[in-house]
Design a protein that fits this description.
By secondary structure, this protein is α/β, with parallel strands linked by helices. The chain is built from 13 helices and 17 strands. The protein has a seven-stranded mixed beta sheet. Strands 14-13-12-15-16-17 form a six-stranded mixed beta sheet. Strands 1-2-3-9 form a four-stranded antiparallel beta sheet.
């Protein structure tokens, strides 16, 4: 395999999580009778530009289908995050009705609508029909396409330019990362700002957050690798923020390489220095990750087997992609977990890929209180804990498995 960014041969393995179905390929009752497509889930490290990336197997059109089931608006934590970002961006970049915000991978419009309600012109770019339809209900303009440089060139020729281009949790989701970054630059106004958010590789490695690895995430980025990719596309990073989302994320602000609107901030220099001191650009930083993932898997399996032996019931909460990686790697099925609760109606009545555990609504927990609830999206543990504690009759214990087994 050659690196998606620099084209150099890649053979340093970070982790091998076996062969699994795509994490967001939820199953219908009818699908249960058919074989599931599975792909190896191996992650490699480029020793030239230090981009961490999945081995090439699955096609993006398979992973992001028309009935894609992830809707960002179902997490109150994420909704609040979007509102805060919109408030900050409006003030920092002096946005008004004269400006346009373009969000790439706008999903159900949760973030873009925060700008729309403030009178800023908005355009979403979202390839999945299910989420694009939800955004249009909010009155948002959505272009249903995958962004690359060719698409961006056509859109720019037709007059679409962004004073603020937002790409949250998407740069990691594209197989052609350079083409995507080129497309973002093409859409950016002369002195426009591009904001990219993505899970921070350093936090992933340090926390052994292997469940955040899935086929839909083609790349895993540090500031070191993100700057390299964006520089290739003619973009220059001028600021960076560390965020708590997704177990630790970066928000990187960039401008066209020729723009002089913003000077490079001290935060960029500090994070560059920290990554250098950690050895992000050396193979040793990535060693031992497989063993730590295996240990987490063993702890979870041991807990579930012990609970069953004691006649205790364990259910899941949150049919998240990271949960599917965890459950499939640990080979958990309905034998150890009867069902998973999720508040997204698009997922209810379906089944998790691989494990084939049914997804139900919250009433099931009220009607049949379990002894334990395993929170699969552990990054919003506090939000889900508050939700469970508000339910009539809830008396069970909360469990998370990553970054370590935690009961109660």
């Amino acid at each position: 395999m050659r690196c998606r960014h620099c084209g150099e041969p890649v053979d340093l393995v970070l982790v091998d999580l076996g062969s699994t179905p795509p994490s967001n390929s939820y199953l219908t009752e009818e699908n249960l009778r058919s074989p599931e497509p599975c792909f190896p889930l191996r992650v490699l490290v480029c020793e030239s530009c230090w981009l961490v990336q999945t081995e090439d197997f699955a096609d993006a059109t398979l992973l992001f289908s028309a009935d894609y089931a992830y809707f960002s608006g179902y997490s109150s934590t994420w909704v609040e995050h979007c509102r805060d970002f919109a408030d900050e961006a409006m003030d920092r970049f002096d946005l008004s009705k004269a400006n346009r915000v373009v969000e790439v991978a706008s999903n159900d419009g949760t973030l873009l609508n925060c700008f729309n309600t403030r009178g800023v012109r908005c355009t979403g770019i979202e390839p999945t029909a299910s989420t694009a339809a939800a955004a249009r209900i909010l009155g948002l303009e959505v272009l249903e396409v995958f962004l690359d440089d060719a698409v961006a060139t056509k859109l720019a020729t037709d007059g679409l330019t962004a004073d603020l281009l937002v790409a949250n949790n998407v740069i990691a989701h594209v197989p052609d990362i350079v083409g995507f970054a080129n497309g973002c630059r093409t859409l950016l106004a002369e002195d426009g700002v591009a904001s990219f958010e993505f899970q921070y590789l350093v936090e992933l490695i340090e926390g052994a957050l292997f469940d955040t690895i899935y086929h839909e995430h083609f790349s895993y980025l540090s500031l070191t690798s993100a700057e390299a990719v964006l520089e290739t596309a003619g973009l220059k990073v001028f600021d960076v923020e560390q965020l708590p989302t997704h177990g630790g994320s970066l928000r990187v602000y960039a401008q066209r390489a020729e723009s002089t609107r913003f000077d490079t901030s001290d935060s960029v220099r500090r994070l560059r220095d920290r990554e250098a001191s950690l050895g992000v650009s050396s193979p040793s930083f990535y060693s031992g990750f497989q063993e730590r993932a295996d240990s987490i898997r063993g702890d979870l399996t041991g807990f579930l087997v012990d609970a069953k032996a004691q006649g205790k019931s364990v259910v899941g909460y949150g049919a998240a992609a990271k949960g599917n990686t965890l459950l499939n790697y640990a080979r958990v099925t309905t034998d150890l977990m009867a069902y998973v609760v999720d508040n997204n109606p698009a997922k209810q009545g379906m089944y998790l890929p691989g494990s084939q555990i049914p997804i139900v609504d919250e009433q099931r927990i009220v009607d049949e209180p379990p002894d334990f609830a395993l929170i699969l999206p552990w990054n919003i543990r506090d939000e889900i804990t508050r939700r469970l504690e508000s339910l009539d009759g809830w008396s069970g214990a909360i469990v998370t498995a990553v970054p370590e087994l935690r009961v109660g």
